[in-house]
Amino acid sequence: MNEKELIFILENVAKGSLSVENAQTQLKKMAFEDIDGYATVDHHRAIRKGFPEVIFGQGKTSDQIVGIMTAMSNISDEVVLVTRITYEKALEVIKVFPDAIFHEDAKMLILSRKEPEIRSNGNILVISAGTSDIPIAKEAYLTAKSMGNHVNTIFDVGVAGIHRLFAHRREIENASVIIVVAGMEGALPSVVAGMVKAPVIAVPTSIGYGAGFGGIAALLGMLNSCSSNVAVVNIDNGFGAGYMASSINQIRNHA
Amino acid sequence: MNEKELIFILENVAKGSLSVENAQTQLKKMAFEDIDGYATVDHHRAIRKGFPEVIFGQGKTSDQIVGIMTAMSNISDEVVLVTRITYEKALEVIKVFPDAIFHEDAKMLILSRKEPEIRSNGNILVISAGTSDIPIAKEAYLTAKSMGNHVNTIFDVGVAGIHRLFAHRREIENASVIIVVAGMEGALPSVVAGMVKAPVIAVPTSIGYGAGFGGIAALLGMLNSCSSNVAVVNIDNGFGAGYMASSINQIRNHA
Amino acid sequence: MNEKELIFILENVAKGSLSVENAQTQLKKMAFEDIDGYATVDHHRAIRKGFPEVIFGQGKTSDQIVGIMTAMSNISDEVVLVTRITYEKALEVIKVFPDAIFHEDAKMLILSRKEPEIRSNGNILVISAGTSDIPIAKEAYLTAKSMGNHVNTIFDVGVAGIHRLFAHRREIENASVIIVVAGMEGALPSVVAGMVKAPVIAVPTSIGYGAGFGGIAALLGMLNSCSSNVAVVNIDNGFGAGYMASSINQIRNHA
Amino acid sequence: MNEKELIFILENVAKGSLSVENAQTQLKKMAFEDIDGYATVDHHRAIRKGFPEVIFGQGKTSDQIVGIMTAMSNISDEVVLVTRITYEKALEVIKVFPDAIFHEDAKMLILSRKEPEIRSNGNILVISAGTSDIPIAKEAYLTAKSMGNHVNTIFDVGVAGIHRLFAHRREIENASVIIVVAGMEGALPSVVAGMVKAPVIAVPTSIGYGAGFGGIAALLGMLNSCSSNVAVVNIDNGFGAGYMASSINQIRNHA
Amino acid sequence: MNEKELIFILENVAKGSLSVENAQTQLKKMAFEDIDGYATVDHHRAIRKGFPEVIFGQGKTSDQIVGIMTAMSNISDEVVLVTRITYEKALEVIKVFPDAIFHEDAKMLILSRKEPEIRSNGNILVISAGTSDIPIAKEAYLTAKSMGNHVNTIFDVGVAGIHRLFAHRREIENASVIIVVAGMEGALPSVVAGMVKAPVIAVPTSIGYGAGFGGIAALLGMLNSCSSNVAVVNIDNGFGAGYMASSINQIRNHA
Amino acid sequence: MNEKELIFILENVAKGSLSVENAQTQLKKMAFEDIDGYATVDHHRAIRKGFPEVIFGQGKTSDQIVGIMTAMSNISDEVVLVTRITYEKALEVIKVFPDAIFHEDAKMLILSRKEPEIRSNGNILVISAGTSDIPIAKEAYLTAKSMGNHVNTIFDVGVAGIHRLFAHRREIENASVIIVVAGMEGALPSVVAGMVKAPVIAVPTSIGYGAGFGGIAALLGMLNSCSSNVAVVNIDNGFGAGYMASSINQIRNHA
Amino acid sequence: MNEKELIFILENVAKGSLSVENAQTQLKKMAFEDIDGYATVDHHRAIRKGFPEVIFGQGKTSDQIVGIMTAMSNISDEVVLVTRITYEKALEVIKVFPDAIFHEDAKMLILSRKEPEIRSNGNILVISAGTSDIPIAKEAYLTAKSMGNHVNTIFDVGVAGIHRLFAHRREIENASVIIVVAGMEGALPSVVAGMVKAPVIAVPTSIGYGAGFGGIAALLGMLNSCSSNVAVVNIDNGFGAGYMASSINQIRNHA
Amino acid sequence: MNEKELIFILENVAKGSLSVENAQTQLKKMAFEDIDGYATVDHHRAIRKGFPEVIFGQGKTSDQIVGIMTAMSNISDEVVLVTRITYEKALEVIKVFPDAIFHEDAKMLILSRKEPEIRSNGNILVISAGTSDIPIAKEAYLTAKSMGNHVNTIFDVGVAGIHRLFAHRREIENASVIIVVAGMEGALPSVVAGMVKAPVIAVPTSIGYGAGFGGIAALLGMLNSCSSNVAVVNIDNGFGAGYMASSINQIRNHA
Question: What range does the domain containing B201 cover?
Fold first, then answer.
């Protein structure tokens, strides 16, 4: 339930077209809803945070995912995102929600019954260092897109051949917010951030081997960036990067 | 040298009031300037990134700091920030730059020959979990302030007595960007980010002991935040948080 | 063999209804029993610690588990708990002990031939941060329940939507001991402990990814809690949390 | 302000012996009090948690400590504890609060204007593995004592000569709660917990060298204890152990 | 080739019963032998170290293992040990060496064409903390046995029920060398070493979970033992423990 | 495209045998080429670095690998290397490039349509400590060979039988560059480097178990080598070692 | 009190030359003695373990050290060892025990009122890799010497110039037990152990910098030794190595 | 003693101008020399490795350093390098060797009685990322210089302003070997190595704070470089980098 839906209910009560009892029933669920004891869905989140709760698929059964999606889609027609969901679980969920689309590389399932409304004139740019980083970059892309932002991508422009990056200089300089996804030594966010004044969200990936330690090398590299317009999210957290970028791109700084 | 100063030079050349030779001399330094072989000051940064290079004081002698400050203040009248400078070195520098102000708790030296121009209608809020985290919070505050932002602070509102935080709910909900500074378990950014739609910059501090591991516990806590509008900077990096918050608060998303 | 059973034997010897030889045979096993050289069952534990030895299923074959269960159930009718047992091994064991019940999410097998006697007026509350943490929370619940305690649960009330937690304030304030199970940043125990005077047992889970490091982030967060009525058990150790909570709930502080 | 003091104010208002204005002034501070912007003292804590806020001395100036102590002692006559305070800072504080007592080994400062009321018939036992662990054991002892508990101690009974421990068997078996403080391999809590049914709070210390890693070896040993009635606090956190033990010793399980 | 075999060759040359050419051929291989470029078998080892090279099965193909065993058994009739060999590889090897015996729990393959000669009057005792540690304890047992030592075992006598250990006190005090195998907190070697003057070889195992970190907790516990007659081998290195114990049990200290 | 091919194009333009339009088309791809949005092939690399881009197979689909190989083989007839490619993916690629050869132990696929031209009179020697380290040693061998170097190998000469190493002393002393591949304690590079003046590239492998920590022990050993003519590459990075050795063997130090 | 002194007391009681009361007083202290509540001296250790308790000086005050030394020297005339004692504390102790000798490099204080009796025909050899490792090697030497062993030393024979080691081959091959002390990559124990059949005790030192991590690199190297007659003690634990070597050199394997 | 000096001795013996006895005395020291038991100087190293032993100053007393320098300068007039020597120790040494020069920033002492002979036409380039990295870069510079190489430097050209680096493109492309010194995220070696075909030695420094972990972040970044002509030395090991670069610059690849 988002703010518009809330106002809609209240106005109908005011007009007399919705009984107090019915309004009460709908609004009681607004704070949160208990689903069979295994989940407490935070329906208030869309009002408080501008976007509904997102379902973290890892460690949940497909039945639990379906249950939460049902509760969410009953109370609002906002987009429903499921992250870190396997192919097998996604198949089960799609049986119940045939409109939902599964993005296999990003491991996301998206139930979107209307085109997301664009909420900012700014644009978000997602850059990846290597081809192997693309799944995480896609997760960031899909998240930011679903949250109502213009989003573009540039893939495979790592620092070992830095002229490939510079060829995109204009596009980079024009972005409002930049997400940089990189594994191995994670050097790309520093170089990109050194070129622009826009904020850069750095996403370390677990791509690499040996002393890459599943993304720790990239994570530490990004946390120690000598460029200062950089902040970091968890390893492989494309979703969080897209969410954070959207929250930046939609800030109220011109009130 | 910022963009205005660059245009000023070019216009004077156009008007004939500045000779080509003199303009050339000034502009040659614009890219960068080599100081006695120990530093290569990036004068182009103010044009490219909207704010001049900042001097990382740790590991530099006071002579080196004075040298870089001299080069920077010769070419522009923008604010000069020195971070992580000890009391002893600051005393030496102030002998040469008596206008510079040393902030002992934040370990910053600021040379500001004009009031920073406010570049955004948004406002940045700096929250600290404990009294011991204040030095890092101050570093964030001073950086964001120097870069031309409205900045407010709320200190000592950690999660062990969470009603103290909720008493500031209105101020928190009205901020454009929020910086949350916390040591120990670093739980505060998650709680704050769960309350708002604004982006939250989380700063882990080295406050704590034992299994706090000099800020690692807080850093990991913040990287794993279950709230998604959170990104993280290095341990004790108040400067980076202030810089990133400023870069967010001044994004061009309504062009 | 618990204290009652010991007294029962001795009284029968006193009454002459049990020969000394038979009593001796039974009591010789009381200290411990060697099973085919692979296990030394500590039958004395129920007397010393108020609860019999618990079988750690990981790394044991189903034959070994059956052997130990047989030895234990021969000597006493106390509940027998097997933890960290896989579905496959549990099937094998149930063939021999058809009364045993396998709890698949908690990976526990429980052989309980009588209802556990309630040994305290206090009550234990198990709280989990997310739906994915429920298996560990269930392990804690089942352990505490089997050891003779009143136990309640509240699931999926993490700090990203903290109003869900506060809605249970009364229940939380009335608990004698609280177990809080959380993965990711592990912030929930600090918040809960800040609300009450009861002791809080914090259980980090391995839920999360990347810099969650299989539960290390949550573990460190809990060890560094800024609330002081918190102590921590091993990652994913729901069993230990339930056992410790029971031992707290049954302390002799009003002798 | 504790519950008794709150009732006292309200009763006087009821009797007319305290004006509403004065009561209002006193009660407004009850939630929390802002001290010069650097601290937000949680005066409500004594009501909520049964014990007032404790001052974490590390990282605070002696002026800040004095300021917080003044605010606390103005509003209540409960004991004021300052932990992790250096000798130098303690000297400064004692100039303002000459009644406060500094315990140098435990690095605690205690301002106690009345004998703490004993709040449980149970008793807490503090055991240390080595002589070098005594400062942390003392911190636990003083905390639990100040919070109104019977507390005893046994020092230097490590596992290398385990008969020293067994000589205290009766005292160990009679304790309601046991705190075990150990550095190096941290094996003592497992052995003690194996002897009793009481809950054991394990405190790893940073005593040791090399692969002791400042207490990590002991911490990990305790988290992996093969005895289940054990929970762990942070390295060198004697204060937390004493606080947790007190909260256990005073639980309401016989309501 | 061991020392006896070397002397045998030389004596036959002396007696004229072996031609110089044939002796030369046999002795040339004595230093080492190159097998198809993938292995350089150190045939000199039995002379230098009293026991032939042992084959580390992990990461080798069954063909490579057969090749090395062939080379070794051609030149000497000493026992051939293969460690860390899987069931599948062992099956392949046994097709070629039907006399070899595979010990599944210890993951060892032993080709022993004569009973190992006992080389010391001392005896080695292998103690394990838990049932799950038995495979590693068996690896130590089989190694020490194959190297010509009297070896005994006591299994499942961990510190949580320490009376089980004390029941074996006489056997423990009579051992010449003791191997203690333990996972989890790894406390058992300290307790055993505190009881005796014999040297104790501590073997950490990867048994445990969570903050056991695959044996790191046990390893650190053992390295920080407060008993001094303890030295440690790698995690799960039962083979190394058995080898080291044998080398201790056979030292020449009474020359 | 290498330098020769570039000159060839330009000379043909000069001679009039290649139109400006065609030359332009060919040269436009020289910098880099975008393949369906998932890869940006750096065709300029052969000119800049003397060897074309190498395809990191891990995390790429076989379709992506085929796409990049097609782009590379269209523009030049230099060798194409694919590293860290599985057997399954290699089969798919070989269907499209039947000339490509898959080296299963080294997990490399090599498409080489002409014999690599030898570019140095020096020779590279690859030494491995154990049989299990051979796959990584092979990866180094194949890389250096493909890049136009004389390369030799010595396998299984670890420090536990150091006479095996010394038997190769002449070959070791004659090498221009030495690659030493070792797992476990990683001691071999120090010993080899102490024998020669040639530069030594040390490659830690993940061979080992327990406290080998997947190659960390070997990596740290090599980084701390007490011999100074040693530099280190990532764990299991045979490719990087071969590449670095080639770049050393072909340096321009006699210009 | 050692075994001889115990027998002496008992024989005098038998002969009537010592009253039961006096014998009782002396023997009561035999188990352990409580010193002012801060230490529980294990007087029984000399009987049980063949050598009295050793005082770990770190973290103890000089008063505590004097107190324990007094208790120990009152009850027996065995040697008293204090390890890890600073120069300042040693000065204080020597005022009370002027016979005690302080070894500054080894940071040991030794009170030896009679020459230690040699208890084995074997000999212990202490080898150090570098000059900077000598203090730890000395600690091992002094410990083994005080415990009644023949001990020799060879210093500064690290693997970077391995011929220096081989020059001592005969001495190395003749030792009964070898202690090898090394920092940096810690490779020396593997090389030495590969040369002999004697057991090798490896002592990692904190000598080094950067990725030596205070001895972790050396520790891991030694734990992963490819020679099997190696066991390891804690970083910088020269004392433990000397103790363990003595316990090996004095084993009862020829009873 | 280097090869020339060895030939000189032998020729003089041949000519009869040096007696066999005197030659023998000089040559006996050639292998190594024992100095008062604390050091075994490897005089053979200059012959074997082309450069004499270098003295690692850390952990040695000034007396030990003087002793080793005396032994070395008696036998040869090659340069003597002392690394990681403090100001205080250097002062003591210079009293004995007044010709020695102390380089305070690099913490090196150099005794050079003749100009080092240039042994290669190639040239080494040392690049540092920041001003604070200069001391380590100087150590590399001085080492390579002393070993007979042409060496140049470029300082303070980190990736946050990458145009500063590109301004030196020609110098970078012309170097035979490049040393890149960087702290923080350690990204510079990847970028530099991507520009050239020369080998790059990467030196991580401990410059940074927080999650820089004393150089670990930079070290991991460099080990995971996506450019392949990179190998890495220990954190802050400027000496090793200079030595390795020299050994590369002087390889015999054109024999």
Answer: 123-254
